[in-house]
Amino acid sequence: MTDFPGDGTAAGNFSLETLDTAQTDRARSSFVIDLRRSPRIETRLPASLISERGTVKGLVTNLSRTGLRFEAGKALADLMIANSGRVTEGIGITVEVCFEVPATDAGSLTVIVLARNVYVIQSSSEIYQCGLEFKVFAEGEDVLVNYLHERGVTG
Length: 155
Fold this sequence. Notes:
Blueprint: E1 2-4, E2 14-16, H1 22-29, E3 41-51, E4 54-63, E5 67-72, H2 74-81, E6 94-102, E7 108-122, E8 128-139, H3 141-150
Antiparallel strand pairs: 1-2, 3-4, 3-6, 4-5, 5-8, 6-7, 7-8
């Protein structure tokens, strides 16, 4: 119960009491759960998406053992959505993703993976993002696992 100060009149002297209901109990115990299979880390790694429709250069902005977020200009939307303007058209297409991760010896190591597009969004007036789920590694699966492990990501 909470008392609010007032001038002693009926309008200024009252108490509030919280109702205990299933909804308030649920709200008190709620927390955000990340349902992804693997934890993600934020990155800024230059990368290329390659498909039969063309190639787009951009950045990997988050990365996990099972997928990544790729960010680029309008060329990304053009690649994923073609000319129909329908965002759902690009969902499910497979692209080759090529990027390099920093190596411990100050060099870099290449990762090439076939990935399935799961979403495309416009995050600002000039930037588009797509989420990609890894399907088959052509090169560098162990490189990616080591890179993530060095940054505290397991699984």
